[in-house]
Design a protein that fits this description.
The chain is α+β, with helices and mostly antiparallel strands. It is built from 8 helices and 4 strands. It is globular, with a radius of gyration of 16 Å. This is DUF6630 domain-containing protein.
Length: 183
Amino acid sequence: MTLPDDDFDPDNNYAQDAEGAQSEDAAGAEALVWQLLLVINPGDEDAAMRQFEAFQDALGGGDAGDVDVPWLLKDVIDWKSGFHLDESETGALIDCINELAARFNLAIDWGVEDPTDDAFLGSVSATELLETAHDQLRLDGYTLWTWETGTDAVAGWMTLAADDEAVRVLSPALGIDARRAGV
């Protein structure tokens, strides 16, 4: 496994605006993936490292600039530090977001006693669930992000709210249309 250069310290890359951000050509797609993995695994560099290794394995020695990075990244983070589910799978979405929040000892108040109840799941949309989770996580200093999949799936991850600017810089550089889930 090869880690990107030390120049890509996550504490140093986000003080500039998007126009001043390092381009994919200058930084390299793998370096940008590494930075994003550090951001979506706050305080858990070991998890970021495992996911980066899986990303590199999936590349099979190829160049990250030659693949559809969002879809490859989706596969290595799914149900670990991210989610990708059909928007009709509201129960699975609740389970996955609960699992992501539990990594940081957080719990989501879904506004009902039993969020796995079929009546509740049938009456709520993925968008409503994402907004609820986003609002709850913001209270604890986290942001729930979604990214445009171009399908009927919802996908995203959570980060520290302090890393919002990092996501705004890294995501477009990787070809990911990310936005806060509550917006």
